[in-house]
Structure formats: structure tokens, C-alpha cells
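Structure in, sequence out. Go:
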């Protein structure tokens, strides 16, 4: 078991004489802790902490109470210290012998939003061994399954902490004159902000300088983290390739990886922004480009109440066009939405060379229509499954539909933004499609 090294350990014990040796043992090994007695309301944080990972919990918070009161007291105290109603996971190390009481507490905790991983240790035994941290960690590890996923998050978070510390140490050492350290460092931050933002940096806005200087650290932070992962990781996760991830969970994971500021308002104008298209007629054309012809025939057949197999493909689509309004309403009702993505190069954005909004049009396609998408067409980009407005969908862009607008003429709020990795992929595929070679021959 790996304990967090960034102050995310909490100890709750009403007996300070028993808590202090554990705090001391953890501190000697470099683990920062937060201690609460549980019986003093003035010591509780103003707001429940939302970044705690491990809780050493004494369930005997008071003497002579009934089991019912003990359980209520533990739940109340925990609720004031940590946020029990957020989607996170805590490792709770119970210091107790009363198995029934622990089970009752767990039953109440499982009613909360958070997820609890429990470990039960013998406090008397740990106390007899002078709260030896190596032995405590070994005992916790023995009670957890090999390759526990919660351990993965703790280890990754420790590596993030180490990587940020490495970066701060490296940059701090660049200023050799200690008397001029503050001034030189501020100058360095200003240069980093200018390098990141280019001509878009407002040099008279300290907040803008601060944000862009921090953004400039992202690249070196990623490199530092990758080095530490390769060098420090000894944790071995169990292989679970035979377990299928639910489609909706998969779409939510991809949303975290590929979308930025989903479902928010007031995003700045920036490459990767996704805007809705107000012209509903475009939805029909986009669907016609992106969906298999057989899909249209089946829908027209439903309108005419005939077998779609009796219809000629081209004629079927032409006939369906006569019912465009009805078909568009059908698509919208099923969750399809026409959108456009800002594909202007990031360098034009940074250097204020942005003269026009350059857009590629596409559709948000719910997964119920996934089989109808033209998967083999080279003029179409199909995204991985994404959770958009709480529905698993794909973004499908039609490279035959490129538009542009005068700068600042787009007075609509974006739905969300694509992260740079997926935006770069779309730009790459679009450029390949635009530059595909052709010859004239007899």
C-alpha cells in the first residue's frame, strides 16, 4: 500500500495521547497529516475537505455511548471533516475490535455518495509496536487485493506531486543570485507568459500574465511526469481485459480526455470551439452526406408505408427530400444536432493573425444511429464515443462542408470545446483530404 505524500491523510481520534505517536511515525516517513479529535466543533474545517484519500478512524468517539449514538457521532464527525457527498473514494482504516459496530457504520456510509474502501486494524497491536508505519502499511496491504485500483490513484498522485516539486526545484535553481531571486523569477514568468500567449497576451493584466505563465509549465510538467512514471512505478495492476466497460462510462471517460468545458457558457473564441448551427435545413444535407443511403430508404418507406427494398436508392433519397421538414423533425427528435467546429490554426490564434472563422460542419450523432454512419468514407471524420448532454454520441464532421465567417461575426455561445489533441487530429485529416493527389490521364 502506498500512502499519499501531499497532506491527504486524516486522523480522527478523541485521545490525543494515542493519536500523537501515529502522527509522529507518519511525519518521520515524510507523510503530512491532518488531525481532528472529533469532540471539538471549533477545530473542524470551514468546509468539508474534498481532497482527502486516507482516514485513520477511531470509532470510540466518546465514552459510555450506546452503539446507535456512536454510529451517529462517527457519521456526523466524518461529514464535517470530509465531503461524503462527492463522487470520490476514501480508504478508511478503522481502529477498533467491535466488528458489529464497524459494519453498522459502513452500512450508513454506503448510503452516501462517496465510495468507501475499509480496512480493519487492531489498534492495541499497532500501539504495542510503537505505531511502526512499515508494519501498518504491510498490514493494510495484506488486507487489500493485489493491484488495488485505489492504490493506483494514490501512486499516480504522489508522482504528480514529485513532478511539480522537480519542476519548481529546476526553475528555482536557474536564478543564482539569491538577492535578485524574486525579480528574476518574475521576469522569467513574464517571458514564459509571452511565449505561451504570443500577441494575445495583455501585458497590462497581471492575471492574464499569471494564467499564461502557468500554462507554459504544462509541457514540461507532462515530460517530468512521464519520466517519473517510467522511473518510479513498481505498482502492478491486475489484468482485466475480459471486463467490458459500459458504453456510457466509456463515453464519459472520453469526454474527460477529449472535451474541454463541456456544457458550459461564455467560453472565449478559440480553435476547437463547437457551435450549434441554427439553419435546420443543413441537418438534412449533413445526414445525407454522413449516413448510409439505406437509412434514407427505410425512413421514406416508413412515411409511404411500403417496403424499402422495393425502392431504387437514388429515387428514394429524391422522394425523401420532398418530405425534408418531416425528416428533419424526426432527426432532431432522435437527438441529432448539426454543429460546426472552429478549425483555425492555433498559431494564427496566438499571433492574432486570425482574419476569419474557419469552420467544418458536422453532426452530433446518438449511438442509436452508429451503424448508419458511413464508416469508410474518406471525407468524413468520426470521433470516438463521447458523452454529450448525458448521452453517448459521436461527432461526425463532413470535410466537404467547409465555411468561413468574418472575425467576430459569430455571436453565439459555443456548446463545448475540443481539446488540442483531437482538434489536431481533425486538422491533420482535413488537410490530407484537401491535399490528396489527383492526375489527368487518358
Amino acid at each position: 500500500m502506498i500512502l499519499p505524500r501531499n497532506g491527504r491523510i486524516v486522523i480522527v481520534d478523541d485521545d490525543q495521547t494515542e493519536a500523537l505517536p501515529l502522527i509522529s511515525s507518519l511525519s518521520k516517513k515524510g507523510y503530512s497529516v491532518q488531525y481532528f479529535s472529533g469532540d471539538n466543533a471549533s477545530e473542524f474545517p470551514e468546509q468539508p475537505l474534498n481532497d482527502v484519500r486516507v482516514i485513520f478512524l477511531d470509532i470510540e468517539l466518546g465514552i459510555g455511548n450506546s452503539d446507535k449514538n456512536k454510529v451517529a457521532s462517527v457519521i456526523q464527525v466524518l461529514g464535517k471533516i470530509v465531503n461524503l457527498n462527492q463522487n470520490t473514494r476514501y480508504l478508511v482504516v478503522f481502529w477498533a475490535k467491535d466488528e458489529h459496530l464497524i459494519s453498522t457504520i459502513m452500512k450508513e456510509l454506503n448510503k452516501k455518495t462517496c465510495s468507501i474502501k475499509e480496512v480493519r486494524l487492531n489498534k492495541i497491536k499497532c500501539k504495542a509496536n510503537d505505531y511502526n508505519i512499515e508494519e501498518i502499511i504491510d498490514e493494510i496491504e495484506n488486507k487489500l487485493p493485489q493491484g488495488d485500483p485505489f492504490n493506483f490513484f494514490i501512486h499516480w498522485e504522489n508522482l504528480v506531486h514529485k513532478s511539480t516539486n522537480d519542476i519548481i526545484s529546476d526553475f528555482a535553481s536557474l536564478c543564482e543570485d539569491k538577492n535578485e531571486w524574486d525579480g528574476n523569477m518574475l521576469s522569467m514568468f513574464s517571458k514564459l507568459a509571452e511565449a505561451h500567449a504570443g500577441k494575445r497576451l495583455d501585458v497590462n493584466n497581471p492575471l492574464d500574465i499569471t494564467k499564461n505563465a502557468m500554462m507554459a509549465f504544462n509541457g514540461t510538467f507532462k515530460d517530468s511526469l512521464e519520466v517519473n512514471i517510467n522511473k518510479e512505478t513498481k505498482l502492478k495492476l491486475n489484468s482485466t481485459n475480459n471486463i467490458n466497460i459500459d458504453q456510457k462510462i466509456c463515453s464519459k471517460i472520453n469526454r474527460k480526455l477529449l472535451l474541454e468545458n463541456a456544457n458550459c457558457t461564455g467560453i472565449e473564441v478559440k480553435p476547437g470551439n463547437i457551435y450549434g448551427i441554427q439553419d435546420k435545413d443543413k441537418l438534412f444535407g449533413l445526414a445525407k452526406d454522413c449516413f448510409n443511403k439505406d437509412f434514407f430508404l427505410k425512413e421514406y418507406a416508413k412515411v409511404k408505408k411500403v417496403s424499402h427494398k422495393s425502392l431504387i436508392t437514388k429515387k428514394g433519397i429524391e422522394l425523401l427530400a420532398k418530405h425534408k421538414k418531416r425528416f428533419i423533425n424526426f432527426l432532431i427528435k432522435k437527438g441529432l444536432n448539426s454543429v460546426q467546429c472552429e478549425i483555425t490554426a492555433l498559431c494564427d490564434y496566438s499571433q492574432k493573425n486570425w482574419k476569419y472563422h474557419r469552420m467544418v460542419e458536422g453532426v452530433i450523432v446518438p449511438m442509436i444511429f452508429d451503424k448508419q454512419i458511413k464508416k469508410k468514407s474518406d471525407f468524413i471524420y468520426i470521433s470516438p464515443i463521447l458523452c454529450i448532454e448525458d448521452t453517448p454520441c459521436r461527432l461526425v464532421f463532413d470535410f466537404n462542408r467547409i465555411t468561413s465567417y468574418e472575425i467576430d461575426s459569430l455571436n453565439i455561445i459555443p456548446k463545448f470545446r475540443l481539446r488540442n489533441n483531437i482538434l489536431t487530429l481533425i486538422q491533420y485529416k482535413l488537410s490530407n483530404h484537401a491535399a490528396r493527389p489527383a492526375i489527368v490521364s487518358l
